[in-house]
Amino acid sequence: MDEFSEKFRRFQTIMKFIFVGWFVLLVAVPIDAYVFFRNLYTKPHDADDEVKVDLISTDALEVFEITCEETLKEIRKTGKKHNSKFPFVDFNKKLQDKLNVIDKIRSLIYDNFDDSKFLRDEHTGKTRIHPKYLNSIKEYNELKSLVCHCADKSEMVDILLL
């Protein structure tokens, strides 16, 4: 059973809630409603709102096209002339190699030679990476998601679809 001190503490908590809880509720509901409607009808300032229409450069598209052609030639060398399917993971690795993505990520993380690598947002005060360092990585991610959406359940990509 509970001891007297535990019962008394519960009684105190219930009394606090009865006398203070209604006040907190009356104050919190209008404030939450105000914050909700303000956030609902205002647009937040975000540096990522500056969306570029050209997510993938023509150079990256050319590299992607060359990678697809080389992969098709590799498939046809194996004697499968009517089959154009290739494992997604292997194609992804080829694309990484051609676009030098791993080297770019490594230099982004470990190379601290350039002070202009980071930008400071005036409105939020947050520091973020300069877009020129991220563009090639974003291009790779867009191409990878394209290839991923063309893969079937067995993670085979039809290169002719690409």
Supply the key terms:
single chain, 162 residues, mainly alpha, two-stranded antiparallel sheet, 7% strand, elongated
Please give the structural blueprint.
Blueprint: H1 4-41, H2 58-77, E1 85-87, H3 88-99, H4 101-110, E2 118-120, E3 127-129, H5 131-149, E4 156-158
Antiparallel strand pairs: 1-4, 2-3
Helix pairs in contact: 2-3, 3-5, 4-5
Kindly describe this structure.
The protein is mostly helical and 162 residues long. The chain folds into 2 domains: 1-42; 47-158, no CATH class. The protein has helices spanning 4-41, 58-77, 88-99, 101-110, 131-149, and strands at residues 85-87, 118-120, 127-129, 156-158. The strands form 2 sheets. The chain has a two-stranded antiparallel sheet. It has a two-stranded antiparallel ribbon with strand order 2-3.
Question: What is the element string, with H for helices and E for strands?
Answer: HHEHHEEHE
Strand order of the biggest β-sheet: 1-4
- Give me the secondary-structure category: mainly alpha
On the 0 to 100 scale, the average pLDDT is 81
In short:
By secondary structure, this protein is mainly alpha-helical. The protein has five helices and four strands.
